[in-house]
Design goal:
The structure is a single chain. This protein has twelve helices and ten strands. The chain starts with a helix and ends with a strand. It has one domain: Vaccinia Virus protein VP39 (Rossmann fold, 3-Layer(aba) Sandwich). It has helices at about 5-20, 20-25, 30-35, 35-45, 60-65, 80-90, 130-140, 160-170, 180-190, 210-215, 220-235, 235-240, and strands at about 50-55, 70-75, 100, 115-120, 140-150, 195-200, 210, 245-250, 250-255, 260-265. It has about 270 residues and is α/β, with parallel strands linked by helices. The longest helix has 16 residues, at about 5-20. It has a seven-stranded mixed β-sheet with strand order 3-2-1-4-5-10-6, with helices on both faces. The chain has a three-stranded antiparallel β-sheet with strand order 7-9-8.
């Protein structure tokens, strides 16, 4: 029998961390106004009689966007506080709240072939080992079901990826593993899904991400923010150019490169 104690401890710690961040995350501009929401809907092609899963739903921005196009949205997140924030977000805009489900992405509390579309936006890098997550996606998707993943992904440039991984780890307060789009393609295909679309170097906000706001939302200390700021300021010129770093007083604007991958269950 596999010893799940280390994973259970890590999940509990992450659950507490993200529960504490729920209010701040609900105000983050990249969730509320980011360009990738429309890209996710475009590739999911949801229809009115389908059940959608918002995986790693956070404060509910993707659930709210999906709601008008499907019969029902299931919002799954590790932190109940995030799910409550998502319920409030839906009510504020007059949408039917998603069905809230607290759970682990690697052990989805859903029946086989029970959903037709899955959206996972700005969350998958936080799930740990991606292989069991991909297998769970294949299990819960019905035949012809679609999944779209959007997240920060490795660029393939070791210098860029080292800085990105360090920033993400500081922000998350724990290990974060960034994978390239081609790696995600292999992982999803190994789980039995057909990959229909892969695009690199997307950007969420035209103005870029504010490092100060990003770390404030995470509840990080001033010392952690200062370390992250110095890391970007001291990065090689090629890295700063790739991330489109712009010094803005005490703050820094930068553009973490996102990837989008769309897959389908065909068998």
């Amino acid at each position: 029998m596999v010893n799940d104690t280390p994973r259970a401890a890590a999940l509990l710690a992450r659950k507490r961390e993200f529960g504490e961040r729920a209010r701040a995350y609900g105000m983050r501009e990249e969730f509320l106004k980011g360009d990738t929401r429309d890209r996710v809907l475009e590739h999911l092609e949801p229809v009115t009689d389908e059940i959608a899963l918002d995986l790693g739903a956070g404060p509910g921005a993707m659930s709210v966007s999906l709601a008008p196009f499907v019969h029902r949205v299931i919002a799954l997140d590790l932190a109940p506080e995030m799910l409550r924030a998502g319920q409030l977000a839906a009510r504020r805009v007059g949408r039917m709240p998603a069905l809230p489900v607290a759970g682990d992405a690697a052990r989805l509390p859903l029946r086989d072939a029970s959903v037709q579309v899955v959206a996972c936006r700005h969350a998958v890098r936080l799930f740990g080992d991606p292989e069991p997550v991909a297998r769970e996606l294949a299990r819960v998707l019905s035949l012809g079901g679609r999944v779209v993943i959007v997240d920060t992904m490795a660029s393939g440039d070791p210098q860029v990826d080292s800085v990105l991984a360090s920033l993400e780890t500081l922000h998350a307060g724990g290990d974060v593993a960034l994978r390239a789009g081609d790696q995600w393609r292999e992982i999803l295909m190994a789980a039995g899904l057909r990959v229909d679309w892969l695009d690199h170097s997307l950007y969420e906000l035209q103005a870029g991400r504010s490092l100060l706001e990003w770390f404030s939302a995470s509840g990080a200390s001033t010392d952690v923010f200062v370390r992250a700021r110095q890391m970007l300021a001291d990065a090689p010129r090629a890295v700063r150019d790739h991330l489109r770093v712009l010094m803005h007083g005490e703050d820094i604007q930068f553009h973490p490169p996102l990837g989008i991958i769309a897959a389908r269950r065909v068998g």
